[in-house]
């Protein structure tokens, strides 16, 4: 089993780092590639991540041709033949995001069977909003033996109000509605940049979606979609992770091709802390002096609030800032597991329901720790860079789901870090 070994203490990150295409954008984009019954779809800027391999296999399992040219970060999909109805359990069970194939398969075939999804263990993560929305579009849903089966004689546009702006449910419903008869209006829709990226691809494929990035989506159904070519948007969470890494090591780092507006909620908190954040022509520069940073209170929320996917990394930053910071996690329950691991390194924190108090500025020592989920794995590596001595981070399968060559990128910025087998 691979481990990351990081020696901390006096690390100061400096230089430039380049960001990949967004994991959370490419997964629904890959699901969308099964919608066109005519022409190939080509995705560029596809990150080389285990979740992408998994989603490629989910799509392949439907009898769709998928090729991944890793040298050029390009995926080509041909879904013009007959699609199978059933997404393979072997891959769906590995990744929660694979539930977003349910809407597209149903829209193409009128019948779909998908296993209840797996994924990170951060709370119960139900899929009721996906299913209620599909029912509103005219699907009959049954759940038997861990499988969800959806059937329809033809999806019909509907007005859907979502109790919570779920990212995955918005994507599933958007994709299903593109091939429904008539108009679908989704209110209280998710507004994440990855929703906008999906709408851009779907509209290139011939759909008619308006309002992406706002809380109301209007989708006028069409008969058929065709293949299209698209560049995956940059990964705001990978960019944010390097922004935090630079901030907590008193670094000076240019995060190339990071998009300012997409990271606005994070930037605002970094600035409140006292980190210098500057927009440059080719990215975002972070300059920081840890000794001068102030504690802050952060609350995770759906976009454009502070992203839950930056919560773990930001708590790592809070540990090096003198004084008491507060992190409130409102999107997922049970997303503070990384704090238990960080305690092994000397973190002083208290958790009361959705709120963690972090007493920053205490001495931190390297330790053997385990990743508990994808973003927690990055957070533990970051804290290893500032703790005295050596930290070893295990369970890297989580890291590989969402970060490409993370240790190499940190090493190029000056971290003393390596990945070993054993
Ligand atoms: C996506 C992201 C994930 C991110 C999350 C929130 C991808 C591949 N993953 O996940 O990295 O952490 O958005 O920004 O894009 N919920 C329900 N019922 C549902 C669906 C969701 O109650 O039917 C709840 C969830 O339990 C959770 C909250 O809504 O508490 C947010 O979930 P959602 O926005 O759906 O996240 P994902 O799409 O799974």
From TrEMBL:
Residues at the catalytic site: 120
MF term (GO), any: UDP-N-acetylglucosamine 1-carboxyvinyltransferase activity
Subcellular location: Cytoplasm
Pathway, per record: Cell wall biogenesis; peptidoglycan biosynthesis
Annotated InterPro entries: Enolpyruvate_Tfrase_dom, Enolpyruvate_Tfrase_sf, MurA_subfamily, RNA3'P_cycl/enolpyr_Trfase_a/b, UDP_GlcNAc_COvinyl_MurA
Binding site for UDP-N-acetyl-alpha-D-glucosamine: 96, 125-129, 309, 331
Enolpyruvate transferase domain mapped to chain residues: 9-410
Listed CDD domains: UdpNAET
Keywords associated with the record: Cell cycle, Cell division, Cell shape, Cell wall biogenesis/degradation, Cytoplasm, Peptidoglycan synthesis, Pyruvate, Transferase
Matching SUPFAM superfamilies: EPT/RTPC-like
Domain of life: Bacteria
Modified residues (2-(S-cysteinyl)pyruvic acid O-phosphothioketal): 120
EC identifiers of the protein: 2.5.1.7
Reaction(s) the record says it catalyses: phosphoenolpyruvate + UDP-N-acetyl-alpha-D-glucosamine = UDP-N-acetyl-3-O-(1-carboxyvinyl)-alpha-D-glucosamine + phosphate
Binding site for phosphoenolpyruvate: 23-24
Annotated family: Belongs to the EPSP synthase family. MurA subfamily.
Annotated function: Cell wall formation. Adds enolpyruvyl to UDP-N-acetylglucosamine.
Protein name per Swiss-Prot or TrEMBL: UDP-N-acetylglucosamine 1-carboxyvinyltransferase
Species per Swiss-Prot/TrEMBL record: Streptococcus dentapri
């Amino acid at each position: 089993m691979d481990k990351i070994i990081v020696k901390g203490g006096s690390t100061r990150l400096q230089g430039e780092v380049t960001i990949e295409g967004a994991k959370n954008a490419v997964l629904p984009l890959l699901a969308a590639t099964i919608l066109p019954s005519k022409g190939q779809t080509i995705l560029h800027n596809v990150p080389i991540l285990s979740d992408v391999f998994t989603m490629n296999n989910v799509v392949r399992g439907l009898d769709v041709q998928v090729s991944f040219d890793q040298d050029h970060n390009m995926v080509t999909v041909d879904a013009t033949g007959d699609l199978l109805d059933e997404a393979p359990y072997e891959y769906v069970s590995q990744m929660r995001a694979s539930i977003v194939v349910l809407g597209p398969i149903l829209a193409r075939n009128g019948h779909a069977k998908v296993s209840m999804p797996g994924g990170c263990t951060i709370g119960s993560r139900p899929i009721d909003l996906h299913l209620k929305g599909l029912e509103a579009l005219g699907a009959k849903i049954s759940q038997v033996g861990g499988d969800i089966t959806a059937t329809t004689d033809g999806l019909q546009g509907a007005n859907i109000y979502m109790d919570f702006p779920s990212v995955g449910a918005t994507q599933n419903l958007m994709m299903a509605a593109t091939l429904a008869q008539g108009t679908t209006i989704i209110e209280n829709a998710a507004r994440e940049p990855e929703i906008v990226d999906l709408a851009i691809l779907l509209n290139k494929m011939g759909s008619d979606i308006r309002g992406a990035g706002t809380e109301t989506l209007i989708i006028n159904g069409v008969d058929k979609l065709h293949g299209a070519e698209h560049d995956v948007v940059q990964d705001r969470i990978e960019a944010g992770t390097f922004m935090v890494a630079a901030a907590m090591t008193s670094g000076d780092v240019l995060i190339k091709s990071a998009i300012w507006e997409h990271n606005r909620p994070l930037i605002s908190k970094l600035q409140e802390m006292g980190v210098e954040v500057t927009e440059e022509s080719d990215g975002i520069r972070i300059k920081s002096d840890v000794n001068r940073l102030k504690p802050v209170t952060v609350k995770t929320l759906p976009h454009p609030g502070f992203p839950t996917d930056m919560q773990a990394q930001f708590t790592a930053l809070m540990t090096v800032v003198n004084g008491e910071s507060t992190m409130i996690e409102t999107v997922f329950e049970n997303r503070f597991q990384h704090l238990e691991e960080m305690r092994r390194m000397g973190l002083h924190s208290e958790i009361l329901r959705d709120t963690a108090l972090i007493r920053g500025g205490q001495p931190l020592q390297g330790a053997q720790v385990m990743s508990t989920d994808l973003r927690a794995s990055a957070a533990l590596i970051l804290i290893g860079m500032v703790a005295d001595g050596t930290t070893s981070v295990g369970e890297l399968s989580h890291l590989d789901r969402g970060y490409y060559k993370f240790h190499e990128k940190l090493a190029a910025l000056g971290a003393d870090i390596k990945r070993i087998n054993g």
